[in-house]
Amino acid sequence: MNLEELAALHAKSLAEIEQAETPAALEQIRIRYLGRNGLLPAVMKQLKDVPADERPAFGRQANAWRQALDAALSTRGEALADSPAGTAPAFDSSLPGRWFATGAQHPVSRVIDEVTRIFGRLGFTVADGPDIETRFNNFTALNTAAHHPSMDAADTFWFDDDLLLRTQTSPVQIRVMLNHQPPVRIITPGRCYRRDTTDATHSANIHQIEGLYVDTRPVSLADLKATLATFAREMMGPGVGVRFRPHFFPFTEPSVEVDFSCHLCDGKGCRVCKQSGWIEIAGAGMVDPRVYRHVGYDPEKVYGFAFGMGVERIAMIRYGIADIRHLYENDLRFLTQFA
Ligand code: PHE
Known about the structure:
Order of helices and strands: HHHHHHEEHEHEEHEEEHEHH
CATH topology of the largest domain: BirA Bifunctional Protein, domain 2
Distance between the termini: 68 Å
Bound molecules: phenylalanine
Oligomer: single chain
Helix content: 25-40%
Strand order of the largest sheet: 1-4-5-9-8-7-6
CATH architecture of the largest domain: 2-Layer Sandwich
Strand content: 15-25%
CATH class of the largest domain: Alpha Beta
């Protein structure tokens, strides 16, 4: 090695120190130059091979290099320790941008909001009730006979003889009628609980939306049908039809099951409507006089209808969700589809 090469190495080492981005990188440089097997000790070892006339100059320059290395290392070391940015890796413009997860409304909340908005335009306001109910509100006042199978411990979560997790949103009807005189026009979204074993279409915890309209002027089954037909068109699209099939509920008489014509195949028959052209959406009927008596209304003076529908069911039909469990697993790959 000659003086020129030594000068070049000196300059190169100082430049590397200046460019070190992290304390760890700086330490690597220190080891490379000053470590036991480093370049500076190697240069010192070569001193004896340098021609005698050049040796003093070479020795001086090597010493100057050592001092410069020490000084540069400590200066750079302090700079890196002082600045937090110095510890961060250099900005890599080739890295892909960060993905920001945007929030999305849960399909169940979406359906509740939409149904609430539609009925809001028809004059229905939202009423609320607790998940823990009394036997009276959930069953007795709703004219459900004491021996009715839905009251069985195999179907209902009971806390004791009186308290239970409500099996339907219908008890909110009772609460509202006990506290308000007609006209009453409410919609009540909420959670319900049943001892169902979970599978693709069942869950022990579902949401229902109840509707109740009671007035002192005549209200008929035709009003119920017109109300639900308006709702069907708003919810599923303009061409959707509504049909009633006779049914039984303890708290309505007559009672019907409500089908919407299938909005996917226009009623021609498809997988979603099981080739029938119709999709079952709600239970409904004219409020039974016995319910009015339980809440202190005069059955001779009031008229009204009620309906109830399952929110998860509507969400599944509306968004093509094949398995109800998707709605409860909180898998972001599923939920962010609704962003
Ligand atoms: N509560 C009924 C159910 O859970 C639905 C319903 C509500 C039927 C109101 C008629 C009137 O099946």
